[in-house]
Amino acid sequence: MKGRSAFSVLGGLLLALAALGQTGRYQVDDGREGARAFRPADFQSGSAWPKMHRNLANTGVAGSGGSNGVMRWDATVEGEVYFSPAIASDGTVYVGSEDGNLYSFSASGVFKWKYQTNNIVESTPAIGLDGTVYFASDDGSFYALNPSGTLKWTYSLGSTQNTSSATIGSDGTIYVGALNSSVSAGNGLYALTSSGTLKWSYATGGSLSSPAIGSDGTIYIGSVDGYLYAVNSNGTLKWKSPTGGPFQYTSPAVASDGTIYIGGSYMANGAALTGLLAFKSDGSAKWAFPTGDVADSSPAIGPDGTIYIGSIDDYLYAVNPDGSKKWAFPTGNSINSAPAVAADGVVYIGSMDNYVYAIKPDGTQQWKFKTGSLVEGSPAIGWDGVVYIGSDDFNFYAIGTEVNTIAATGLSLSPNSVTPGNGSTGTITLASAAPAGGDVVLLLSGNSAVTVPPFVLVASGATTATFPVTTNPTATNYSAIITATSGGANATATLSVHSLALSGVSVSPTTVLGGSSAIGTVTLNIPAPAGGVAVSLSSSSGAASVPSSVTVAAGATTATFAVTTTSVASAATVTISANQGSTTVTTTLTVEPFALGGLALNPTSVAGGLTSTGTVTLDGPAPTGGASVTLSSNSAIATVPAKLVIPAGSTTGTFSVTTSVVKSASQATISATLGSSSQTAVLKVGPTAVASVSVSPQSVIGGSTEVVNGTVTLNGPAPAAGAVVTLVSSKATAATVPASVKIAKGALTATFAVTTKTVTAVTSVSFKATYGGTSVTASLSVNPVQVSGISISPSSVLGGAAAAGTVTISAPMRAATVVKLTTSSVSATTIPASVSIPAKATSANFKVTTKAVAATTSATITGSIGASNQQAKITVQAPVLSSLTVNPTTVQGKSTKVVTGTVKLTGPAPTGGFKITLGSSAPTAATAPATMTVAAGQSSVNFTVKHSKVTNSISVTLTATQGQTSKTATLTVTP
Question: What number of other Cβ atoms are within 10 A of residue 328's Cβ?
Fold first, then answer.
C-alpha cells in the first residue's frame, strides 16, 4: 500500500480512502433509503461521478448500473493507480497516479492530456459546475485545472505527507484535508474559494479523510488523531467523537437519517475490536459492527440503506442500518478499495487479489474481472454503467456497461476465405441501434487456429461494428465458425483458411466464329496476397491465342484475359490451360467457321423493270479481309452481281436485284453461298399496272383560279409505246379531267389538269384512273366561294354624306362574281342591290349614300353569296347647331343699319326642317325672333336683329338653342 507504511495497525485502524466524486444528478436517488441525507443545489449537473464516492454525503451510490464484466478499454499510465477516478458530464474521466500525473481520458478511452505534479497524486479529483478539475498532490499543492488540462490556480497546503480528496459544497466552497509531515506545517481541514483563496482552516491532530457534508451543511472528516470531526460551515467545531485510533484512508458517509458511518476501532467487553462505527448526528455513538481486521475502506450506503465496507480480513461486509450483519463476501486478499453501489444494487469493489468484483445485493458474485496486479483503487460508475478502476499494474480499466442487449441479426467476414496467417475483418449487425454507452457483443471462434477478440463494442446509436480475425500461419486447409452473441441471439459466419491454389479457368462465350474474340477468367480459391499472383496461360491450337500469363491482383480472386481466334475451315475445339504452382486447370473453346445466317429481299414483290435490295447476314463478324459471298438468280427476269464482299468486322452486306418488264406475273429465286452454307429468297416480278392516282390540292374553291394537278403512277416503267391511262370524273358539273393521260416510255408517272366549276355547296368528286386492268381513285373536295369580309369607310357620317363600302370573297375566281347587297335602314342609307367582283380579283367597292336624319341612326350593310354572308355597320348622324353669328357686331341703337343674324347646322336639316329657339340678354336694346326654322335640306337660316335707342353702350348676348345644344353671339348697341 502506497504512502501507508508510516502508520501501524497497532496504533489504530488504517482505513482505505475511497475514490472521490460528486454528482448533481441527485434525482436518480429519489426514494432510495440511505442513498443520501439531503439534496444540495445541482451545481455539478450531468456529471456521473464528480468526486470521491460521488455525492456530498459520500454514499457511493451511482445513478446507473449494468456492467457485464467485459473490458471496454484500458489505458496504461506511468505509475500505479490506487485512487478512484472522477467522471465529468461529457464522459471525460480524470484519474491520478503514483507517477505524479493527473490523466484525462475520453469516455471511449482516448488519451486527452496529463498534468504533471511533483509528487504522488493519490486523491480523487472533484469537478466543479464549470468543469474545473480540483485535486491535491503530495507535493503540498492543491490544483485547479481547466477542462483542457491547463493550470487555473494552485494553493499551497504546506509540506504534506498525504492529502485527502476534495468535496465541493453546494455554495462552491472546496473542502480538503491535509496531513503534513510536521504538525506545525498545518494539519486539518481547509476551506477554499473557487478562485483559490483560503476561506478558513480548522486544525486537527492530522487530517486526511475525505470530507462528507450533511444535509445541514456540517462537514464531517476523519483524522489520524483518532477522532471524527463535525465542523460547521463557518469553520468552527460542532463536535468531535473518538474513533479509537489513527486512521486516514477511511472517509465518513452520511445516511438519509443523519447517521454518520466510518471505519474505526472500539472496546467491547474489555477487548479492542475493529470495524464499522455508526454515530448519531449529535456525535454520540449509535452502534459498532466488528470486522475480522482493520476496516481499511470507506463505507458506502446502498439504495436500500445497507452499509457496505471492506476489510483487510479479505471480506466485503454488508451491514443493516440497525448494525446487524446482512452478509459477508470473501475475496482472495485484503480489501483497501471503497465499494461503489450501482443503481440496481450491485456492489463493485477491488481486492488485493488482483480482481475487481461485482456482488449482487444478496451477497453472491455476479462476475469478477482480473487485472495484472493489486487493485487498491476504488471504482467509479459512469452514466452508461461502465465501471472505471485503476490497478497497481499501471493500467486504468473501463469495464462493461448495459450491453449485450440488442439482438445480433447478422455477421459477415471480408474476405471469408484467406491463406494461413492472413486476417479478415468481421462485421456484426444488430437489430436496432445500440443504447447509450454502446452494446458489447460477445465473440467466439469455433477453431483455435482462428482467433477473435472476446467481444466487440457497437457504439451508441450504431447498428454495426467491425473486429479483426487472425489465423494461424502454419495450419492449412480448415475453416472456423465465428459466432457473435447479443440480446439472446447468435449470428454466425464461416472463415475458410486454405493454401492459395488455382480453382478454375473459363471462357465466355464458349463458342465463337473464327476471327472473333472471347474473354477468359482465371479463379483462385482465396484472395491473392500482396503483390498479386501470376497465372501461366496456354492454348492447344493456333485457332485461339491467349497471353502467356495473367496476374490476379492483391485481394482479388479472379482476373480476366483476352482470347483471340482466326478463321477456320471447319469447327475446331481448343483447350485453354491455366497453371499456378502445381495446379493446372483447363477449359475448352469451340471456334466455328463463318456461315450465312440469312438472305432477305426488300421489297419482295416489284413490277418488271424496277429493282429490289438484297441483304446477306453472317452468323458472326466477317474476318480480316472480309467474307466473299457468291450470288445467283434462277431466272433472267432478275439479275444479281456474281459476288458480294462483306467487310471485315461487319455481319451484313447489301446488293441490288435488277428486273425486266414482264407481261404476266413471274418470280425468281435469288441464292447466296458462303463455303458450305447457302441461303435463298424469292422475288415476285409483276406486269406494269396503274399503282395510284392523286390530286393536289385535295380541297379547292370551285371556279377559282387555283390550279389543281392530278398525278397517275405506275407500279413499274411504262412500256416502249408508253402507257395510256383512262381518266373519269364522277361529277363533271363540279370538276372535269381529260379522257386520258399518257405516261412516256420508261417513266413511272404523268400529270393532268383538273378544271373546277362554281358550286353552291361542298361537293366531293372522285377521279378514276385505269390501266393494265387495274383502276385506282382519288378524291377532290370542291367548295363554294364565300363572302369573306365587308367594310364601310368611314363607319360614321352625317346624314347626307357618302361612304365607301368594300366586299371581299374567299378566293379569286376565273369569272366575275356577283355579291348581293342589302341595308337594314333604307330611310338612312341607299346602296346598290349588288356588286360584281371582277374575274381573278377578290374584292370590289360600292357607294353608300346617306340621308339627312332627325336622330342618329345605325344601319347594317350585308353582302351575301348564297348562304354565305358578312356584315358591316354605318352610323348616320343627325345635324346639330354649330354656330350663331351677327353682322355687324356693333350698331347705333335705332339707326337704319340692318343687323343680320345667321344660324348654321353641322349638316342639312331633315324632312320637316330644323327648329331653332332664339333669345336676347337685353331685349330693351336688341331682340331676335323667338324661333327660326332651317328648311329641309338646308344647313343655315338668316334672321333680322331689331335694335332700340340706348343712352349707354350695351353688350347684348344673343342665344340660339336646339335640343341640348346652345350657341351665342354678341352685339354691341351704342347711343
Answer: 16
